[in-house]
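Long-time lurker, first post.

We've been arguing in lab meeting about whether adenosine-5'-triphosphate would sit comfortably in this protein at all. Half the group thinks yes, half thinks no, and nobody has a model to point at. So I'm putting the question to the forum: if I give you the sequence and the SMILES, can you give me back a predicted structure of the complex? Inputs are below. Any interpretation is welcome too.
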Amino acid sequence: MKIEDKTVPIREAPTSEEIVIKIKDLRKCFGDNEVLKGFNMVLRKGENLVVMGKSGSGKSVMIKCLVGLMAPDSGIIEVLGKNIDQLDQMELDELRSDIGFLFQGSALYDSMTVRENLEFPMRRHRKKFEGITDTLPLVKEALENVGLAHTMDLMPSELSGGMKRRVALARAIILKPKLILYDEPTSGLDPITSKEIIELMRNIQHKYGTSALIITHDVDCARVISERMILLVDGINYAEGTFTELIGSQDPKVNAFFKK
Ligand SMILES: Nc1ncnc2c1ncn2[C@@H]1O[C@H](COP(=O)(O)OP(=O)(O)OP(=O)(O)O)[C@@H](O)[C@H]1O
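Top reply:
Settle the argument with this. Predicted structure of the protein with adenosine-5'-triphosphate, as tokens:
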């Protein structure tokens, strides 16, 4: 929790090598609509950080600023040691090759097989795969990680919603990213499939030591996956803490997130 809550112990500040994302005083408005009003966030190495905020609170805007898809009005954003604002397009592309994305709805290309979907980011980030002529072992490894090696030649239309999400996860990890951004990873899935996806996210964190920023409305997902959480309310990082710390908060705005 933030300083106002005296019951929560203060954590030691991470060193710069331990920081994967640092957002300082991020501000973004659209006309009169002030969406981000001084948002701060730090993601540490190997950590799963969940950001929760109600619909329209600015989570997607924050992620877009983070990966250089949207320019903030002001603020500092550092990702993997690079200041986003100072990167040219080539440098931004190179940085993105270290970032895996899993967006809502899986976003697989319908006209490509599962294998082609997985090869797509590899083609886009050729430089990272220089010298690798046979992509098959990498595709297989990524699919094995999500238990779907047998689907390589199928089309997305032949997969269930849960399988599509797994393939999208395989596509996110094929670049062996240092950081994964998950936008609503369990949305639209039934509780059992959601659990399976969360389990896979945890496996990936353990196997590859990736850091993850997870945007979700799903309280169960946040409970299982998060080491730390930030609640985005009124354009700022309103509250921070572990799931247990936040669910025990007396603050009505924090409380509202955990009411079923
Ligand atoms: N390109 C844009 N132009 C104008 N307004 C925008 C633009 N992008 C986002 N907004 C506004 O910014 C606010 C935050 O939007 P954002 O998509 O970040 O919300 P969110 O927290 O991700 O919501 P959800 O959980 O529903 O996805 C909204 O009021 C939205 O209308």
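For your lab meeting: The radius of gyration is 19 Å. Residues 30, 33, 35, 53, 55-61 surround adenosine-5'-triphosphate (CB under 6 Å). Whichever side wins, do check it experimentally.
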